[in-house]
Design a protein that fits this description.
mainly beta; Jelly Rolls; two-stranded antiparallel ribbon; 2 helices; 8 strands; globular
Amino acid sequence: MRKKIIRSDTLNQRSQPEQEWLDVEQIVRVELTSEDPNFTIESALIADTGPGWRAAETGEQTIRLIFDTPRTVHRIRLEFSETEVERTQEFTLRWSRHANAPLEEIVRQQWTFSPGGSTSEVEDYRVQLEHLLILALTIRPELGVPDSTFATLRKFRMA
């Protein structure tokens, strides 16, 4: 009999080797509504480059990835972290095959962070986005008190 002890919190989170994630640095142009110079978007999009992205302004923020050429994407992984403030966040992920077409919603998700409890959110989506040209992530960092909190994103990966 072969046996391996695993932690229950990792049962549904199989790790994707970093080399299998898309090298977005080479294939996308990024547009964003704001960026703290100490927490740049590269830090969230590129493996092992820093603590993640944070907005320079409070309130709703958008990160748009515009691919140089259309791609097929099968997986999207988002990681958020909040260790200081209790808040309820909502994010929406949208996509399009065409530059001037309306974006189609993939998912809208809410999560409540609590420094004494839930401090991280990991969302791992299996998708079938063929001819993906634009992928947009909109983050509303605080649903209770709009424009009071900075949006953050620890990791944003695609395969």
